[in-house]
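ARCHIVE CARD
Drawer: 12
Card no.: 0347
Subject: one protein chain, sequence and derived structure
Cross-reference: see card 0346
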Amino acid sequence: MIRRPPRSTLSSSSAASDVYKRQYQRRVRGWRSSIMANRNQGYRCKMCPDDNPDVVEDYATGDAICRGCGLVIEGGIIDMSSEWRTFASDGNTADPSRVGAASNPLLNDSGLSTMVARDTGGGGDNPMADNLRKWNNRGAQSSQDRNLINAFREIDRISEHMALPGKIATTSKEYYAKVEKNKTLRGRSSEAIIAACVYIGCRMEAVPRTLKEIAGQTNATKKEIGTSFTYIKKLLKLNESMDTIRPENYLARFCSYLQLPEGIRAAAGFVADKSMEMRLVAGKSPISVAAAAIFFVCQLCEEKHVKDKGQISKIAGVSEVTIRNSYKDMYPARAELVQFPKDVYTIPPGRGIHNLPLV
């Protein structure tokens, strides 16, 4: 027969296990601090004269090895990278992560509240677990934080679809949090406010997008986004910190979509700047001036780079009539507008102002 050990033996073994566990945790913390200190200060090899030796970290054995002489400089290295690998083709939807998202200073609780996940192990038929999750989620976050999280997800979606840099998404979230903090969103379309914050983020990061482009990613209309933008600009007093949009902000992107070389973009920038300097296009929007400048320069280029108003209109998001009107204002000063500096653009042989269409 197998006898059960006395209760005192069990308690003593459990206590010893706890002691060993605490000692191991202290040892790991010491290793981690030592390793981070070595990484910050750089490894030193006793055998090699070089102050900065070529060291490789072998996580399989936990050693830091000098490539020059093979000396093991450090032992017991802890792998600080992810403890799992996931692939899209695995077909496994289980999340192996044991930690939550990073803290978010824009939320009241910094996004560190506890959330109860769904019970997927028992087929999902667990009323008690569902009630626990529901009531915990209701009390864990305030209504303001829930609104912010939903808005942040929408901002991330718009930024991803428009291929915007991550900095723009972060800036847009900061401005939406400021608007939410003022508690002045009652009666206003949340989609229009979110889209307007994305528009402001693009303007602040000097990567402007048109209202029409942003409206194409939401259910809000261009007029609603423009009204919300004006409201937020007045609420947060952004007139001084927001730079004025110039045609150059759009030329690089438009020329890239039209597959035009860098020389044509530089020439279009010269035409746009010269037209504004001569006040030929006073009162025109920067988008229409940029589109007209591209059309102007394309008529002076080789045949393979010539673009008509319809092609430019689809890329710029303005009508052909708008391009024609801006081009009409530039046409009387065509002799001055084609005086490109040598380092900007050179008109190909056989091309000139006679190729510009009449207005």
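Annotation on reverse: The longest strand covers residues 55-58. The beta strands are 55-58, 63-66, 72-75.
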